[in-house]
Structure formats: C-alpha cells, structure tokens
Design goal:
The protein has 227 residues and is an all-alpha fold. The chain is built from eleven helices and two strands. It has a domain at 60-152: EF-hand (Recoverin, domain 1). One of its GO terms (biological process) is microtubule polymerization.
Length: 227
C-alpha cells in the first residue's frame, strides 16, 4: 500500500509541474489597437524629423534654398555648379577684386568629386573656407570663415524681374504704317487703323463719281442749295 500511495503522489506532482510550465494562450490581436500603435509610431517619427529640420542652421537653410532654385526635382541636399555661382553672386561673395567668378569655379571643381557634378553641404562649407581666405585677407582664418558665413546666412536666391522689350529701328520701320508703300499702304487709313476687307479687295464704287474725285458727294448739296 505505501508504494501505491507514493506512486499516486508522484503522478500528481508531475501533472502539477506540467500545468505550471504551460503558457497561457494568447488572446487574438485587436486590429484597432495595432493601427493606433502604428499611427503613434509614425507621428513620433514625423515629430522627430520635424525637430531635426527645425535645428537646421541659417547657413544650411540658405544652402538648401539655393540648391533647389530652378530645379523642381532637386532635394536640397546637393548643389550644382550653376547654383553655386548664383549663390556667390547674390550673397556678394564675389566682390570683383579679391574673389571673381573664375575663383568660384576653380574652388567648385577642386572640392567636388572627379565624377560628380554637385557638392554636398559639407563640401559647400569646405568651399567657403577656401574662398574666405581670399575674400577676407586681413582677418584670421576663423574670423574669415565667420564673415563669409554672415554673407550667406538667411539669404535666398534673387529672382530677376521681367525683361523689358528693347525697341529696334528695324521693328519700328516694319510696324510704322506711315512708311508703307504700294498696296500695303492702301490697307490702312491715315490714323494707322486697318481698313479691313476694303483694304484687301477692290470694291465697286457705285456712287457715280470718278475714283479719287475730291468733290465726291457735293452734287446733292449744290442742287439743293440752288433750289
């Protein structure tokens, strides 16, 4: 009998151990909660990106504005040589004495990669450092870099106004009706206004007067006056 009791007690302990090791079944996932978690994750990521964007320096903001100028596909992370030259002109980095357009082109070619046509923001700062030595010769290297950064910070591309039409003597001669001759002259009246169909076709004059007669239309007045 003791052996039976011992075996029963061992079986009960084994069953209790197995039941303790079993993990409770997972409840089915709630799709609403999953969507909310994803949305919160996206919002947190976007807010983090916004915070990073808000931390852009005034120099980098200017770099991005000039980098996307005139190019709808540009991302603002890289700048072409044309926009680099425009930045140096608009921000007065080029002064015509210490720094010329040639200096700007040489520095750009030196900083960019051999197979690349653009420069990054880091390369942009290197290029400014190179030009600062020429632009501000009387200042230390550190002060020269600060001064050239001040020229660019907070700036944006200057958009030129609409080009005015330049009057040309040739165009004026071709559009001045008083100088027309021959059949072209007959298409306009003395004020320069076009006669329309009458100026393009020979219309039959049924007035009874000879063409070009100066006193046309005066007969009726004379007859009525005599009466």
């Amino acid at each position: 009998m003791p052996s039976v009791e011992n075996s029963t007690m061992a079986d009960s302990k084994t069953k209790s151990a197995k039941s303790a090791n079993k993990t409770p079944p997972k409840s089915p996932a709630d799709p609403t909660k999953e969507k909310a978690a994803k949305r919160l994750s996206c919002e947190s990521n976007s807010s983090h990106e916004g915070a990073v964007a808000g931390e852009l320096s005034a120099l980098e903001e200017a770099f991005r504005k000039f980098a996307i100028h005139g190019d709808t596909r540009a991302t603002g992370k890289e700048m072409h040589g044309k926009n680099w030259s425009k930045l140096c002109k608009d921000c007065h980095v080029i002064d015509g004495k210490n720094v010329t357009i040639t200096d700007v082109d040489i520095v750009f070619s030196k900083i960019k990669g051999k197979s690349s046509r653009t420069i990054t923001f880091e390369q942009f700062k290197e290029a400014l450092q190179e030009l600062s030595k020429k632009r501000f010769k009387d200042k230390s290297d550190e002060e020269a870099v600060q001064e050239i950064h001040k020229l660019i910070e907070g700036k944006a591309p200057i958009i030129s106004g609409v080009t005015k039409a330049i009057s040309s003597p040739t165009v004026s001669r071709l559009t001045d009706t008083t100088k027309f001759t021959g059949s072209h002259k007959e298409r306009f009246d003395p004020s320069g206004k076009g006669k329309g169909k009458a100026g393009r076709e020979d219309l039959v004059d049924a007035s009874g007067y000879v063409s070009g007669y100066k006193h046309a239309g005066t007969y009726d007045h004379k007859v009525q006056g005599s009466k």
